[in-house]
Write a structure and sequence with these properties.
189 residues, alpha/beta, five-stranded parallel sheet, 10 helices
Length: 189
């Protein structure tokens, strides 16, 4: 784990990053609940009905409005808005679970969502057809497999360089992730 020692001011603004299937949304929801702040899932802003992508200027504007608030937890990995989120974040969390753990969690989640036709955001749903696609832009499992290394090799260093004011915390297993909201409440970062 990176980042040790108590934080001087209460934490109310947290960015959560990690590979698809790493548990970003689960951790972000727990943090937002425990801190009593709003949670924003960037996928829900970006993916409009029919999986249409929100234009970059509109996406940046929506995210700027979110992070302008006094307290929030934002989960997602979009480079187009990273500067906005990191500029205001007090803590940047990077979930760096093993590739096999992430893919296992993601397969279970994707199959379940596809089978029950669960709505994700704005009427969008995952499908079995996409799960078998060889196009990483359609197949979330293939996307996660190909991008997994970023959350070990790149994102922590980019966060330290791009947001020197923020505490960067790397969580490497599910137990550390589950314990993290309590650590935040105690100021034990």
């Amino acid at each position: 784990m990176t980042g040790a020692g108590p934080m001087a001011t209460p934490v109310t603004r947290i960015a959560v990053h990690g590979a698809s299937g790493s548990g970003k949304t689960t951790l972000a929801a727990a943090l937002a609940t425990r801190l009593g702040v709003a949670r924003t899932e960037l996928d829900g802003l970006y993916h409009q009905p029919g999986w249409t992508q929100l234009p970059t200027d509109e996406f940046r504007s929506a995210v700027a409005e979110v992070v302008d608030g006094p307290g929030w937890v934002v989960d997602g990995n979009y480079r187009q808005v990273r500067d906005l989120v990191w500029a205001r974040a007090q803590v940047i969390v990077v979930l760096d679970l093993s590739r096999w753990r992430v893919i296992g969690q993601l397969l279970k989640r994707t199959v379940t969502r596809s089978a029950v036709r669960a709505e994700l955001w704005n009427g969008n749903r995952e499908s079995f057809r996409n799960l078998f696609s060889t196009d990483a832009d359609k197949n979330v499992v293939l996307w996660s497999w190909r991008t997994h290394h970023r959350y070990h090799d790149e994102i922590p260093d980019e966060a330290r360089a791009g947001a020197p004011h923020a505490r960067v915390v790397v969580l490497r297993d599910r137990a550390a992730s589950a314990a993290f909201p309590d650590r935040v409440l105690r100021g034990d970062l």
